[in-house]
Amino acid sequence: MMDILLWIAVFLGTFIIMEGMAWFTHKYVMHGFLWKLHKDHHRKDHSNWWERNDLFFVFYALLSIGCFLLWKYEDIWIGLPIGLGILAYGITYFTVHDIFIHQRFKMFRNANSRYAKGIRRAHKMHHKHLGKDDGECFGMLFVPFKYFKK
Predict the structure, then answer these.
(1) Cα separation, 76 vs 69, whole angstroms
(2) Interval 89-113 mean pLDDT
(3) What is the pTM of this model?
(4) 17, 71, 101, 103: which one has the fewest Cβ atoms less than 10 Å from its Cβ?
């Protein structure tokens, strides 16, 4: 029983840590030294569905796969819940950010809960700035409460 609880704690801890990693990566990497990869996400001056910004998804997918490989081939048990936590966060982030907010797939258009409106409002404020600097950065799940007004 303790093994299952530890496994669940590692999985949930990884998921929560990934929100912090998303904030850190967005603020200091995407809006920092790798702005060249991220700027096409802010400036829609291209007609491609694929953006250079999508390479950040690839990086985290490879990190998750690496954890799975450590679990499978090196018998490191913690690799599985960490890899699944990264994967679960990636799926959640993709669903909220790319599908719900940016409508890369035309789904969830009619979601109008207080949470949905807050997420959209917060993201709109971030995209208000088209340049590298001055954009407020935050995670996707734990958005500042000021955006959830009635």
Answers:
(1) 9
(2) 84
(3) 0.84
(4) 103
Q: What is the pLDDT of residue 97?
A: 83
With bands split at pLDDT 50, 70 and 90, how would you rate the model's confidence at 134? Answer: low
Please state, in angstroms and rounded to a whole number, the distance separating the CA atoms of residues 102 and 146. 21
SS3 sequence, 55-99?
A: HHHHHHHHHHHHHHHHHHHHCCCCHHHHHHHHHHHHHHHHHHHHH
The amino acid present at 110, given as its one-letter code, is N
pLDDT value of residue 41: 83
- Distance of alpha carbon 63 from the chain centroid: 14
In whole angstroms, what is the distance from residue 138 CA to residue 124 CA? 12
Supply 108's token pair. Answer: 């969830």
Count of Cβ atoms closer than 10 Å to residue 95 Cβ: 15
For 44-89, how does the pLDDT look when each residue is reduced to its tens digit (9 = 90+)?
A: 776 777 889 899 999 999 999 999 999 999 999 999 999 999 999 9
Q: Return phi, psi of residue 3, to 5°.
A: -60, -40
- In the numeric block, the tokens 């096409």 are attached to 40
**Torsion angles phi and psi, residue 143, rounded to 5:** -90, 145
Q: CB-based burial of residue 148 (10 Å sphere; 0-12 exposed, 13-18 middle, 19+ buried)?
A: middle
How many whole angstroms separate alpha carbon 115 and alpha carbon 6? Answer: 30
